[in-house]
Amino acid sequence: MTDPTPRHGGEHAVAVAAAHGVETLFTLSGAHVFPMYDGAVHAEPPMRILDVRHEQTAVFAAEAAGKLTRVPGLAVLTAGPGVTNGVSAITQAKFSGSPLVVVGGRAPSNRWGMGSLQELDQPPLLEPVTKSARTVHLVGDVPAAVDEAFTLAGSSHRGPTFLDVPMDQLFDKTTAEDPVLGTRRRLEPDPDGLADVGALLAGASRPVLVLGTDVWADRAEEAALWFVEQTGIPVITNGMGRGLVPGGHPQLVTKARSKALGTADLVVVVGTPLDFRLGYGVFGGKDGATPARVVHLADSPGQVSRHASLAASACGDLTAVVDGVQTALERQPRRPDWSAWLGDLQDEVRAGVERDEDLLGSPADPIHPARIYGELAPRLAEDSVVIGDGGDFVSFAGKYVEPQRPGGWLDPGPYGCLGAGLGAAIAARIARPSAQVVLLLGDGAAGMSLMDVDTLVRHDLPVVMVCGNNSAWGLEKGPMQMLYGYDVAADLAPQTRYDRVVTALGGGGETVTDPAQIGPALDRAFAAGTPYLVNVITDVAAAYPRATFGV
Ligand SMILES: Cc1ncc(C[n+]2csc(CCOP(=O)(O)OP(=O)(O)O)c2C)c(N)n1
Ligand SMILES: [Mg+2]
């Protein structure tokens, strides 16, 4: 249908974004993108404009919105510094496969080359860290370009897309039609690959299944849990795969990870790269075991590992992949029985849980960071969203917090960019209005985004923040000590009152130094109804025990 009323570029862009399911636009003001705001204000219904205090927060928020809702998030950044301030967060979305669309302002085309304000050709900067980065030169092309950006960002393998529109064109009007929305392609896996995986599973004595972020992103959570329960296979989860198999499930053996991945004879990895988090895809060989065979199942061909030596692989829509592997296994003449192997791992999990108890209840003064999780974990509701932004403090969370549902755990992923926390918390509060939102902040990480508590306050978005305040860049201090026997540039001021930063901005908070006071402080935070930061002074010597630095 033709639309006879001319509308400016911003109105078109917002209409197409809304048709793709976007409800919130994350931004920080700049004249180059005013038409986007005007489009949001005059949309029917209006699109929510969530304005922040630093562009990185806008993009981290849009990225988190994409991860939580599985509709690409939308960030609008003004020309030049607005766009460049967003680059780290856009890169993080690329590394995590997060669906995200970033619309940038751009100096006007009718003055290009004459030196107008913030005249930067942005797509070349963004090209390496996005799925596509382009300039839309004519307002009439805006609707189709925005549609393409959303379709591409939301298609496997997901990731960020960027487009900028010269200011004169974005303000200009056109009667161009809004396009019929692009549809996401659903790639069917190759049946031969699935059959190979079925045969490998049937022949395995000690298999382990690893479920990662893309299982959630590709909406394969039901198929994955069904597969797990039908086969009896032990499981480890990572990234947004955490919660796919709920904490406490008898087949979840994350707490026996070292034994499981070290002594497995087959490791089937679904929806996550074979990167440093998974030992680059080398498993088995521990305690005299032979190296494990490795299967990689991915959402798209480009995601299948090229560096690991794979016994089999398959790619495509992950529900079809997981269901297809199950069918292939059922066709095998041999029905494997893994109950003894699972039992061994369950013994190891039980031993791990017992070992953890002492630290989780530690009465140590100064406070051991694990004690915070001993207090927090029992207070978390099933649908809570837990966000990690920090070093060691967040590693402890990974160890001690086991989500009950998928889609409730946000970590920075393999790009590991500090400063994502406030943006993620903003997005989580909006995406899950009735859920607990808990933001775990290292004191170092807190310094990178705490000003955006102002955004939480202005937009009435209560979240609970817990700062593990060890007065250090802990994850750097420990390794530097280990490598050099001394450390520099790793200390922060002692006992800084980050809670007072929050109260100064209109929220609430308190500092805790007594381990017995952590629980009551968390209860006050959950009851506060305002952004609230519990600043827990912890022992800098209580570093997270780690064997590698991830490099
Ligand atoms: C943007 C960015 N800068 C630097 C780093 C390197 N880095 C990784 S962890 C870490 C320390 C984090 O300190 P803090 O947030 O206080 O957590 P802690 O390890 O002390 O618990 C640093 C500096 C990073 N990952 N991201
Ligand atoms: Mg710290």
What key attributes describe this structure?
551 residues, binds magnesium ion, 22 helices, six-stranded parallel sheet, single chain, 16% strand, alpha/beta, binds thiamine diphosphate, globular
How far is the N terminus from the C terminus?
A: 55 Å
Fraction in helix: 25-40%
* Cα-atom radius of gyration: 24 Å
Q: Low-confidence segments, ≥5 residues, pLDDT <50? A: none
Please work out how many helical segments DSSP would assign: 22
Strand percentage lies at 15-25%
Strand order of the largest sheet: 3-2-4-5-7-6
Largest sheet: 6 strands, parallel
Q: Describe the oligomeric state of these chains in a short phrase.
A: single chain
Query: Averaging pLDDT over every residue, what do you get?
Result: 96
Briefly note the structural class of the backbone. Answer: alpha/beta
| Distinct ligand kinds | thiamine diphosphate, magnesium ion
Strand element count: 19
Backbone shape: globular
Describe this structure in words.
- By secondary structure, the chain is of the alpha/beta class.
- The strands form 4 sheets. Strands 3-2-4-5-7-6 form a 6-stranded parallel sheet, sandwiched between helices.
- Helix 22 links the parallel strand 18 and strand 19.
- The chain starts with 6 loop residues before the first strand and ends in a 14-residue tail after the last strand.
- The mean pLDDT is about 95.
- Magnesium ion (MG) binds next to helix 18.
